[in-house]
Amino acid sequence: MSADAPSEFIRALPKAELHLHLEGTVDPATLAELSRRHPTPLATDNNRYTNIADSGRVFTEEEAQALYEYKDFTGFLLAFKAVTERLRTAEDYELVAYRMMQKLHVQNVLHAEAYVSVGVIHWRGGEFAPLFEGLERGRKRGEHDFGMSLYWIFDAVRHFGTEAAERVLDETIALRNISDCIVGIGLGGDERRAAPELFRDVYARAASEGLRLTVHAGETAGPESIWATLRELKADRIGHGLHADDDPALVTYLAEQQIPVEVCISSNVLTGCCPSIEQHPLRKLYDAGVLVTLNTDDPDMFRTSLVREYRIAQNSLGFNASELRSLARNSIRASFLPEKKKQELLSIF
Predict the structure, then answer these.
(1) Which of the ends of the chain has fewer CB neighbours closer than 10 A, N or C?
(2) How much of the chain, in percent, has pLDDT values that exceed 70?
(3) d(Cα 190, Cα 195) in Å, to the nearest integer?
(4) Is 133 noted as a catalytic residue in this protein?
């Protein structure tokens, strides 16, 4: 069977999705719908968009699909910005949040923790608080209709600088008064352009406010980026961690400390960060005892799903049924859910 045809066993596994960007769940049909809603360019004072997709024109579904064809990580970032340019209103965010949960539900995802690119919204001159009202409406509808839970992680963009990250943190702290489903902050973007050390004070303040800490590290940079993230930012979870395997001492440390690593196989291959699925280090990290979880990153932008990622682990990396079950358990163990809720979900196994 191909990776595109997941078995019923994989589909039925109780799962959590921990590395998931809301904007990356916008499928071509939804992107075309959003472009019809907003057929004119976004009013903004910055002119840093460089992709023709940011012009504001209406897309067909086929043209929207073409946006998701890129050859490297930089091309992916441009496509990601093109999608966010068409998310403009609370109603837009309600739509994509609800559809995201709908797609997760059919894969038996019981809990998800979704990144929202607050830093990008600020960068393009928007106010996030009114948009968050739409996100919350979508979340509440989804939890009611599908019986799953959803947490928000507000993501800063490292190459926008520390002041921009501070603003994301300010917004996170303020909006926690509205929703206790805001659990943490993240740091995405191009790690080659901004070292973890720059954000030491931001993360220290976030920790003092009781927020959980995630960081994209070891995706486009080497193991030194992961070491710095652990040392300087005290991250609770590592996003991607692709190049951890380049340093045996780091792998040993991650295993001994049981620091969760949010693995995203298809994403790493399609952005060119990993040469091929067969060369992906998931198998080695798992065998070394690292607490790895399987995730999709931006599933519709990478033409994948969580059940497909499990099938890839089975078909291409040799994971048997018991090991797949272990990966699913890891996803719940590594979540930011309260311990009582974790045990409740783990008992399903």
Answers:
(1) N
(2) 93
(3) 10
(4) no
Q: Which residues pair with 255 in a beta bridge?
A: none
The rounded percent of the chain whose pLDDT value lies above 90 is 78
Residue that has been written with the tokens 């890839």 in this structure: 312
- The angle that helices 129-146 and 90-105 make with each other, rounded to 10 degrees, is 30
Please compute Rg for the chain using Cα positions: 19
Render pLDDT for 281-315 as a digit per residue (tens, 0 to 9).
999 999 999 999 999 999 999 999 999 999 999 99
Active-site entry in 17, 171, 219, 309: 219
If we measure between CA atoms, which residue out of 232, 242, 300 comes closest to residue 269?
242
**10 Å Cβ neighbour count for 264?**
31
3-class secondary-structure state, position 14 = coil
Hey, what domains does the chain have and what are their CATH numbers?
8-25+107-346 (3.20.20.140)
In the three-class reduction of DSSP (H, G, I as helix; E, B as strand; rest coil), residue 263 is classed as strand
Tokens of 158: 């490292």
Closest CA to 185 of 207, 213, 157: 213
Report how far residue 107's alpha carbon sits from residue 195's, in angstroms, rounded to the nearest whole number. 36
Give the span between the Cα atoms of 153 and 332, in whole angstroms: 16
Token code pair at residue 296 = 């999709």
